[in-house]
């Protein structure tokens, strides 16, 4: 009988993006665990590596966590000696979060393994497809931001 068979549809893009996010996070957690940090902490450190001296609110936004979560995350990183807080000279009520030398060394040690993980993720893509993928992800993020 025609039309009685269930048709298979491709998974939604949202579902596929979530699958990629979860598998990347799992691999990243495995990669950074021996260094005593989590994937979320690693993300925050890389945000500070690009833009050192952010407020907690800015760091939360750029690290994709809530303002409440960032407080615990920063305390943990501060306890490990990976970040320090100091008053903003332009707004004395605001504390800025800065990387320590130890954090910079850690990020240097992780750079190669993280790059290898990213290369593994796009191994089946050409350089051109990888750049298109990067641009497509950026446009998708901008469309929803």
Tell me what you see in this structure.
This protein is mostly helical. Helices cover 63% and strands 12% of the residues. It contains six helices and three strands; from the N terminus they run ααβααββαα. α1 packs across α5 (101-121), α2 crosses α3 and α3 (56-63) packs across α4. The chain is globular. It starts with 12 loop residues before the first helix and ends with a helix.
Concise synopsis of the structure shown:
The protein is mainly alpha-helical and 145 residues long. Helices cover 63% and strands 12% of the residues.
Helix/strand layout:
Elements: H1 13-32, H2 39-50, E1 54-55, H3 56-63, H4 67-79, E2 83-88, E3 91-99, H5 101-121, H6 127-144
Antiparallel strand pairs: 1-3, 2-3
Helix pairs in contact: 1-5, 2-3, 3-4
Q: Quick one: how many beta strands?
A: 3
- How many helices? The count is 6
Which ranges are low-confidence, i.e. pLDDT below 50, for 5 or more consecutive residues? none
| Classification by helices and strands | mainly alpha
Largest sheet: 3 strands, antiparallel
In what range is the share of β-strand residues? 5-15%
């Amino acid at each position: 009988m025609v039309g009685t068979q269930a048709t298979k549809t491709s998974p939604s893009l949202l579902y596929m993006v979530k699958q990629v996010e979860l598998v990347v996070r799992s691999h990243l957690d495995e990669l950074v665990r021996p260094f005593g940090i989590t994937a979320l902490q690693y993300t925050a450190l890389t945000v500070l590596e690009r833009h050192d001296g952010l407020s907690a609110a800015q760091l939360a936004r750029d690290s994709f966590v809530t303002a409440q979560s960032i407080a615990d995350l920063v305390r943990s990183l501060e306890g490990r000696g990976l970040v320090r807080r100091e008053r903003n000279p332009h707004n004395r009520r605001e504390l800025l979060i800065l990387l320590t030398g130890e954090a910079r060394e850690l990020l240097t040690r992780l750079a190669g393994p993280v790059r290898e993980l990213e290369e593994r993720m796009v191994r089946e893509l050409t350089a051109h497809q990888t750049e298109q993928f990067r641009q497509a992800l950026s446009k998708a993020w901008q469309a929803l931001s």
